[in-house]
Design goal:
206 residues, alpha/beta, Rossmann fold, 23% strand, globular
Length: 206
């Protein structure tokens, strides 16, 4: 058994889910600037997530779901995941973003499981609150150990890929550590660096 864990925003998906959600509210630039600092490790991930989601308050939940149905997948995503599955990998997505984004991508790409956060809605409107599996900077490292234990997968047979500061915590638990079009904070911890927006480049190292 082998395990491949991918970040979603700016790794499997070309962009940041929360930036797409902020656009109809005219808050895309404000949210994007906070996201940029969080991914560079300049802000606490939990605090930045709570702050950004609070700005989505008032957005219709149905509108948010609609936006997330058609998020642009990263070039090479289909080919990479198909090949990994042929090679016996279980493929999982960990995202500090939201289930309404990772869920549709999971179905399209044939991913085995997704772990992400839930945007709270009441009466069909986002309340600006959020909860879930991936709320903290350490969440991905915590979850990968549990998944490895459950599946009986060793560190040696684990690949991880991400782009930002909240991906750092899972890197110690994988033999193949991929920084994909990543921030410097993650590149320092990686042993595979891909700077081209083409996920199939990862296959060169497998």
């Amino acid at each position: 058994m082998k395990l491949a864990v991918f970040d979603f925003d700016s790794t499997l998906m070309d962009g940041e889910t929360i930036d797409f959600l902020a656009k109809p509210l005219g808050l895309e630039e404000k949210v994007a600037s906070i996201t940029e600092k969080a991914m560079a490790g300049e802000l606490d991930f939990f605090e930045s997530l709570v702050e950004r989601v609070s700005l989505l308050k008032g957005l219709e939940y149905a509108k948010a779901v609609e936006i997330c149905k058609d998020l642009p997948l990263m070039p090479g995503a289909f080919e990479l995941i198909s090949e990994l599955k042929k090679q016996g990998y279980k493929v999982v997505c960990f995202s500090g973003g939201f289930r309404i984004g990772t869920g549709p991508a999971k179905e399209k790409l044939g991913i085995d499981a997704d772990f992400s956060n839930i945007l709270h809605e009441k009466d069909g409107i986002l309340t600006g609150l959020v909860g879930g599996d991936m709320m903290f900077g350490f969440s991905k490292g915590d979850m990968i150990q549990r998944v490895q234990a459950m599946l009986g997968v060793s560190q040696e047979n684990t690949l991880v890929a991400g782009d930002g500061a909240n991906d750092v915590s899972m890197f110690p638990y994988a033999a193949k550590k991929v920084a994909f079009c990543a921030k410097d904070i993650l590149k320092k911890e990686a042993n595979i660096i891909v700077d081209e927006k083409d996920l199939t480049k990862i296959l060169d190292y497998i």
